[in-house]
Specification:
It comes from Pseudoduganella lutea. Keywords: Signal. InterPro entries: ComF/GntX_DNA_util-trans, PRTase-like, PRTase_dom. This is ComF family protein. By secondary structure, the chain is α/β, with parallel strands linked by helices. The protein folds into two domains: about 35 residues, no CATH class; about 190 residues, 3-Layer(aba) Sandwich (Rossmann fold), CATH 3.40.50.2020. The chain contains nine helices and nine strands. It has a five-stranded parallel β-sheet with strand order 3-9-8-4-5. Helix 5 crosses helix 7. The N and C termini lie far apart (about 45 Å).
Length: about 240
C-alpha cells in the first residue's frame, strides 16, 4: 500500500478539467482560473449568493426563517464544470473526485474568517437500498479526506436514514420538505449532545435535506450544526 501511494505521488495524472498531466487532480492553471479570485459573497447561514457589495450579515430568507443549521461552507457553485464532476462521482463511481472535493472544501473552510470547526463530521446517510444500488455513499467519501485535512473525527453512523426517499432533484417546493420529513434518526444521543456537528454532502440546493438532518441533530442535543457542502445550487425562491 505504501509503495502504491508513493508511485501515485510520482506518476503524472490528468487534470479532471483540462486533462493536462501533472501531480494534482486539479492543475495550477485551472485552480487559478476557478479559485484564484476572491470568493463571491454568500449568506453565512445557507450559502445562498448575496448581491455584489452586499454588507448584510445573512440573507433575507434566513432572517425570516432561520434553518436548523447554523452555518454553511461551500467550495464551488453547482455549475459548469463542477456539476459534471459531481455527477461523475455520484453516478459514475469516480471516487477520486471525492478527494478533490474534500481538498477544495478544506481550503474554503480555512478561508472563512472566524469559522469554528466542528467536533465531528456526519456524512448525510443514504438509505440501505440506495447504498446497495450505488455501492458507496458519496458524502462519506468526501467526509473521510475532509476530516483528515481539517483534523476532525468522522462519524459515519452518527445518523441513519430510516426510510427510503425519492431523489430530491426530482421534486420541488413542499414536496421536497415532505420527502425528507422524519427520515433521519440518531441512534446514540450521547455522541451528539452538547457538541458542534458538521454535516457533509456533495450538493446543496433547497437545503431541505440538510435542514431536516440538522433539526434531528438539534433535537438530540447538538449545540451547533455547520454544513460542509462541495457545490451550492441557488434555491428557487420560496424553497429555502
Amino acid at each position: 500500500m505504501a509503495m502504491a501511494m508513493a508511485l501515485a505521488a510520482l506518476l503524472p495524472c490528468p487534470c479532471v478539467l483540462c486533462g493536462m498531466h501533472g501531480r494534482e487532480a486539479l492543475c495550477p492553471p485551472c485552480r487559478a482560473q476557478f479559485f484564484g479570485a476572491p470568493a463571491a459573497a454568500r449568506c453565512p447561514v445557507c450559502a445562498d449568493p448575496l448581491p455584489a457589495g452586499c454588507a448584510v450579515l445573512k440573507c433575507g430568507a434566513c432572517v425570516v426563517r432561520h434553518p436548523a443549521f447554523d452555518a454553511t461552507v461551500v467550495a464551488a457553485p453547482y455549475a459548469m464544470p463542477w456539476d459534471r464532476l459531481v455527477l461523475e462521482l455520484k453516478f459514475g463511481g469516480q471516487l477520486a473526485h471525492a478527494r478533490l472535493f474534500a481538498e477544495l472544501l478544506a481550503d474554503a473552510a480555512r478561508g472563512v474568517l472566524g469559522l469554528t470547526l466542528p467536533a465531528l463530521l456526519c456524512p448525510v446517510p443514504l438509505g440501505p437500498g440506495r447504498l446497495a444500488e450505488r455501492g458507496f455513499n458519496q458524502a462519506l467519501e468526501i467526509a473521510r479526506p475532509l476530516g483528515r485535512l481539517l483534523g476532525i473525527a468522522v462519524a459515519p453512523r452518527l445518523a441513519e436514514r430510516v426510510q427510503e426517499t425519492s431523489a430530491q432533484s426530482k421534486l420541488h417546493g413542499g414536496r421536497r420538505r415532505a420527502n425528507v420529513a422524519h427520515v433521519f434518526a440518531v441512534p446514540e444521543r450521547a455522541l451528539v449532545e452538547g457538541r458542534h456537528v458538521g454535516i457533509v454532502d456533495d450538493v446543496m440546493s433547497s437545503g431541505q435535506t440538510l435542514g431536516e438532518l440538522a433539526a434531528v441533530l438539534k433535537r438530540h442535543g447538538a449545540a451547533r450544526v455547520t454544513n460542509f457542502v462541495f457545490a451550492r445550487t441557488p434555491p428557487q425562491r420560496g424553497e429555502q
